[in-house]
Structures are given as C-alpha cells and as structure tokens.
C-alpha cells in the first residue's frame, strides 16, 4: 500500500515533532488521547495514556488493551473535551484527530504540544488513513520502529486470514457491513472506501452491493435498500442482535437476506472506525460467527 504525503502534511508533521515534549530519561510520558483511534494506536505502541476522552465508551466499543487504561482519567467527550480536566492532568502530549479537533488545535496546543492524526484523507481512502495515522502517532511518540512493526504484523495477519478464507467455503462470499442506528429502522452501510469494508475485501470476501465511496466511509439506507441483497449474501450487523426497530418492521422478515438466515450479528466490541487491532478483531470475530 502506497502512503502519499503532501508538502503541507510534511511541514505540519515536522513542526509537531519540533514541538514534541522533551522528556528526561526514564520519565513516564503524560499522554492524553482525545479520539478512540488515537487511544488504540497509543496503547498498541506501548503507551498508557493518563487521560482519555469518553473512556467508558472506549472500553465498551473498542476494548483494545483496556488494562492499559487502568490509571486513565476521563477528560470528557470526544467532540468537546474538558479543558479544565486537561489542564489538571498537565500532559506532555495530546494526541487526537483532525476530523474532531482541527478547530480546537490552537486551544489544545496552549495546554500541551498537540498532534492531530489525519483521519480525514483527501482521497477518501480510510484504510490508508489508518496506516498514515499509525505512522504519525509513532513519530510523535518516538516509537516509529514500533509503528512499522505493528503495521507489518497487521499485514501479515490479514494475509494469513485471506489464505485461510481462500481455502474455505467463505472464499468470495458476498457481504455487506452495517451498523444499526438507534431509534429508527435504518442502517449505516459501509462503503467501498471505508476501512472495514476494505479489510473484508482483502480478507477474501466480496462486496454484496456496489456502493460509491462516501467522505466518511458510509451511507444511510432504509430497509428498502436491503431488498437488493439476494439470499446468498451475508449482512454483517455490528450489534448484539437485530434491534426492535428493524425486527418490528413489516418489511424486515420479507427481505431475502433475512429469510435465508444471512444476518450475522457480531456483537461487541465491533468498532469499524478503529486501528489495526480493532479491524483485525472485527474480521476474525465475524469469520468465527460465520463458521459456527
């Protein structure tokens, strides 16, 4: 996979490294992460943040290395963290998201050097963005070699999954990945440029619907949109079970994918916007459910 770097991205990265904290040897870093992707990557690189935005949500939805957050403090919501909580923690570095906090970057930088991971790529390739974010976090944390090793391991494990799938009855299986929306009989459907859909394609599945790329990697459809799925497709549902809003609809039991038993609820954690561990975990858990 080729990772493109613009001149602007290079300059921003260089400036963030110049602003990075200078820690004394052996001194633990006081890292705060304000987006779940940043939290996951930091933990995978061996860092234990002292502050995390929406900590309970991370433990429920992402659940990667929760033990590494035993001493972490919740610093408020991911969209609007508490500046008071951040100041109390006196962090050495804040790691967050371009999508979430571009507008807050100046304020955050007044608390501590801040690195925003680019999770809003211009080309819309959200899997490449995971690679880019992992490398950028590695540079900001002084763990570039660990970041490269993490991504190499990710590629190896994904290739192993693809080999296993190719030799099984699941090879070429048509799938669609969906997340129920609370309170309405609608679904968030992940498009071809999403990280999660690209992972399933690389693992040896095919896309059940030809959906155009979307800026955030998903579109929203009603049950009528699922009528295009035939009885041979699998609907991977990122939930414990089909919610009542779907099951109580008169159309739901008539859908070919439902009639054929093609709905696969994968349960939690199942975070489709995460990093290497989240994506691999989602893929392996789904395959296990489909093979059961």
UniProtKB/TrEMBL annotation:
Keywords: Ion transport, Iron, Iron transport, Signal, Transport. CDD domains: FhuD. GO terms for biological process: iron coordination entity transport. Belongs to the bacterial solute-binding protein 8 family. Residues 30-292 form the Fe/B12 periplasmic-binding domain. It comes from Ensifer oleiphilus. InterPro entries: ABC_transptr_periplasmic_BD, Bact_iron-sidero_bind. Its main location: other. This is Iron-siderophore ABC transporter substrate-binding protein. One of its GO terms (cellular component) is outer membrane-bounded periplasmic space. It comes from the Bacteria. It is found in: Cell envelope.
């Amino acid at each position: 996979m080729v990772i493109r770097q613009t001149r602007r991205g290079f300059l921003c990265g260089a400036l963030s490294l110049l602003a990075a904290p200078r820690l004394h040897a052996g001194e633990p870093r006081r890292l705060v992460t304000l987006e779940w992707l940043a939290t996951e990557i930091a933990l995978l690189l061996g860092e234990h943040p002292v502050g995390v935005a929406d900590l309970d949500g991370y433990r429920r939805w992402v659940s990667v290395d929760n033990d590494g957050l035993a001493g972490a403090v919740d610093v408020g919501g991911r969209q609007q963290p508490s500046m008071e909580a951040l100041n109390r923690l006196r962090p050495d570095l804040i790691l967050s998201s371009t999508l979430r906090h571009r507008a807050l970057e100046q304020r955050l930088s007044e608390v501590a050097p801040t690195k925003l991971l680019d999770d809003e790529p211009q080309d819309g390739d959200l899997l490449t963005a995971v690679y880019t974010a992992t490398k950028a976090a590695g540079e900001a944390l002084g763990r570039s070699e660990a970041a490269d090793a993490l991504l190499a391991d990710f590629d190896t494990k994904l290739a192993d999954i693809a080999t296993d799938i190719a030799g099984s009855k699941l090879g070429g299986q048509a799938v669609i990945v969906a997340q129920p929306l609370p309170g309405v009989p609608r679904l968030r459907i992940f498009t071809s440029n999403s990280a999660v859909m690209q992972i399933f394609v690389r693992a040896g599945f095919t896309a059940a619907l030809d959906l155009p790329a979307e800026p955030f990697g998903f579109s929203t459809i009603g049950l009528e949109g699922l009528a295009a799925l035939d009885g041979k497709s699998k609907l991977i549902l990122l939930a414990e079970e089909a919610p009542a809003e779907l099951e109580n609809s008169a159309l739901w039991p008539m859908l070919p994918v439902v009639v054929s038993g093609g709905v696969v609820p994968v349960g939690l954690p199942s975070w489709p916007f995460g990093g290497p561990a989240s994506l691999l975990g989602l893929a392996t858990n789904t395959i296990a459910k489909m093979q059961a």
